[in-house]
Specification:
Layout: H1 3-24, E1 43-45, H2 46-66, H3 74-92, E2 103-105, H4 106-130, H5 142-166, H6 190-206, H7 209-236
Antiparallel strand pairs: 1-2
Helix pairs in contact: 1-4, 1-7, 2-3, 2-4, 4-7, 5-6, 6-7
Length: 252
């Protein structure tokens, strides 16, 4: 089997696995964040876990770019920038804004690394080597323009929502409270909504099955977790706003 055959097989399997993960996560709560618990094996620092999970996506995607013959074309450079904006923040900035002392299971880290390796391979190899490439006309295509705008909107929503969560606690505090402001007015997890929007924008901007698989995986992972967060908030706080939905305003 040549690489193109392997790529196609992995891509088909990736969509199927996303469906399995989506269903599974409604029954098994991933053991990280507020749901960290014993019984899942060894643990490491939350900060170290996030760096180990996310840094390979930034590094390997860049490696695929620099090993390709498309390094001088504008669109591959733009896709590289979009990807790295997310993953450099997620691996080298976000972890160090987390509350110190928290733990993450190694199994969570390992699963995250496996996902990032597969996802980065599919997107990086398609964009920089195996895909047909993009002509300069794609810069003016409505799909590219709309996708970039959607991506930026999702990125801003995600980061603004994370900032609101981070500012809920004063130094030394460890409890939980009801987040307010921004899109928290309408949903319990606008940070997840932002990330789903972000990678939906990526799928549109790249107009590729590889990009669509990333959007599908993002939704498969975050929609069940948003539903769990929403239930947790309603259980913990008797005065939790009844009009809030889990992740999609007015719908879900």
């Amino acid at each position: 089997m040549n690489e193109q055959g392997f790529f196609d097989l992995l891509l088909i399997s990736w969509f199927g696995l996303a469906g399995v993960i989506f269903v599974t996560l409604f029954f098994i709560t991933a053991p990280y964040g507020r749901y960290t618990r014993t019984g899942w094996g060894p643990m490491i620092s939350n900060r170290a876990g996030w760096v180990l999970m996310e840094l390979p996506a930034a590094g390997i995607f860049a490696l695929f770019f620099f090993l390709s013959e498309r390094t001088t074309a504008l669109l591959p450079v733009l896709f590289l920038i979009m990807w790295e904006i997310h993953y450099v923040h997620r691996s080298l900035i976000y972890p160090f804004r987390l509350r110190p002392g928290q733990k993450m299971t190694l199994v969570t880290v390992a699963l995250g690394v496996i996902f990032n390796l597969g996802n980065t391979y599919l997107n990086g190899r398609y964009l920089f080597t195996l895909g047909p490439g993009y002509t300069a006309a794609w810069l003016y295509d409505p799909r590219f323009i709309a996708g970039v705008l959607i991506f930026i909107s999702g990125f801003v929503i995600n980061k603004h929502s994370d900032l609101i969560l981070r500012d809920l606690r004063r130094p030394g505090e460890s409890g939980y409270s009801i987040p307010q402001g921004g899109l928290y007015r309408w949903v319990s997890c606008p940070n997840y909504l932002g990330e789903i929007i972000e990678w939906a924008g990526w799928a549109v901007a790249t107009w590729s099955l590889a990009g669509l698989s990333f959007a599908a995986w993002t939704a498969a992972n975050l929609l069940p977790r948003a539903w769990q967060h929403h239930r947790w908030y309603r259980t913990k706080f008797s005065d939790y706003p009844k009009e809030r939905k889990a992740v999609i305003p007015f719908l879900l």
